């Protein structure tokens, strides 16, 4: 069967896709950004195995994106940073979303499985174990 | 051209459709409902001519809708009451959403145009004026 | 009570807000745009009093919006033109969404009430009747 | 670093969360279900590493969910079956969503990594290797 670490990474991906696509398009301004950050985090933390969600909407980017008189814009991935921690059957997965080359890239930062941390460390890439 | 009152009612409808379909599906539990209410109201209040939005998520209905172990459900119209006030060119429109016969009905409660209130008053229904 | 024409305009606004916020954020490319147009129109046509919806996603704008290697972007109001026709108690409302000054403006094009068309005609603007 | 298989599972989860929360709440009826299925599949197939998406909206469940005169309901996980295939750096991940105990459960069906299939096979559950 799929390993617990693989299942944990799958669960982590679900939370990110959910957060992004549930809230994409939400009207936002610097004055409403704090309430939206809080709601996004608390709603996704309801999902199974989701231990913590941190959403930071960047007010400077929101202000830059407001290009009409109406004083607001619509939430996209480019306006926020997101971090999450998922726990599944003893595996901890940490994830982050940040802009890279014009694309809001969702990244696996770390997969901690039974104490063995698999972090973003290129040195581990050539060990032959298909699970390393 | 379309009257200011007609335009105001159009604007009011846009806010309701936006609120409903932006947030439908958001994971919600009694513990996360307050933050979601606040974010829904503040985000839609960003929209043009939207003076106030009041969202009450009914914790009892949320609790009833939770039918699995995961402890949350997804927001639908049946779980909340919403009121809004829109102001457009001197016209005030008040609206409300509440459940009626299994359907989350969005209603025009009152259209106040230049001081003339057109409320939900059956007595006015037979006056022949197509605009009354 | 609110006039049938006002109610019809309210209904028309609900459809627009629904369409926009339900589909904002949907991944889209020129190759997937046709299926999305069809689904957007057919889904909103389910809503009460909604007689027809026409969605045109502009492939050129989608292509311009694709600014990374992944070959797709996310649907926003700036990428499409939308027209709708709503019928309520003998009143026909025609609406359109198009970009104006960087904002996807939703417009009442025409309100036809009992044969009296109230189109976007500046000549009617000074007639004193608060409902004209 | 996180293994390719773990990254592939993460990618697979993102697609599922995206599909579910982008389209939850979409008005649907048996007559509009086919266009929605097609649009959901084609839009998510735009996402990186997503090779195929299959959405089946169950007309019988949609019809059952329609509990008012308006002839439509709003899409939820309970109304559809979804299967996906993700390919990432030589790893194939197959996933499925189906209802289990009132919850739309998203499952990893199979993770094929360098020819070694890790399927839902209970016989492998006691092998002691935390990654098996």
From TrEMBL, chains A, B, C, D:
<dbReference type="InterPro" id="IPR036839">
    <property type="entry name" value="MptD_sf"/>
</dbReference>
<comment type="subunit">
    <text>Homotetramer.</text>
</comment>
<dbReference type="InterPro" id="IPR027508">
    <property type="entry name" value="DHN_aldolase_MptD"/>
</dbReference>
<keyword id="KW-0456">Lyase</keyword>
<feature type="binding site">
    <location>
        <position position="106"/>
    </location>
    <ligand>
        <name>substrate</name>
    </ligand>
</feature>
<comment type="similarity">
    <text>Belongs to the archaeal dihydroneopterin aldolase family.</text>
</comment>
<dbReference type="GO" id="GO:0046654">
    <property type="term" value="P:tetrahydrofolate biosynthetic process"/>
</dbReference>
<keyword id="KW-0289">Folate biosynthesis</keyword>
<comment type="function">
    <text>Catalyzes the conversion of 7,8-dihydroneopterin (H2Neo) to 6-hydroxymethyl-7,8-dihydropterin (6-HMD).</text>
</comment>
<dbReference type="InterPro" id="IPR007181">
    <property type="entry name" value="MtpD_C"/>
</dbReference>
<dbReference type="Pfam" id="PF04038">
    <property type="entry name" value="DHNA"/>
</dbReference>
<dbReference type="GO" id="GO:0004150">
    <property type="term" value="F:dihydroneopterin aldolase activity"/>
</dbReference>
<feature type="binding site">
    <location>
        <position position="11"/>
    </location>
    <ligand>
        <name>substrate</name>
    </ligand>
</feature>
<feature type="domain" description="Dihydroneopterin aldolase MtpD C-terminal">
    <location>
        <begin position="4"/>
        <end position="108"/>
    </location>
</feature>
<comment type="pathway">
    <text>Cofactor biosynthesis; tetrahydrofolate biosynthesis; 2-amino-4-hydroxy-6-hydroxymethyl-7,8-dihydropteridine diphosphate from 7,8-dihydroneopterin triphosphate: step 3/4.</text>
</comment>
<dbReference type="GO" id="GO:0046656">
    <property type="term" value="P:folic acid biosynthetic process"/>
</dbReference>
<protein>
    <recommendedName>
        <fullName>Dihydroneopterin aldolase</fullName>
        <ecNumber>4.1.2.25</ecNumber>
    </recommendedName>
</protein>
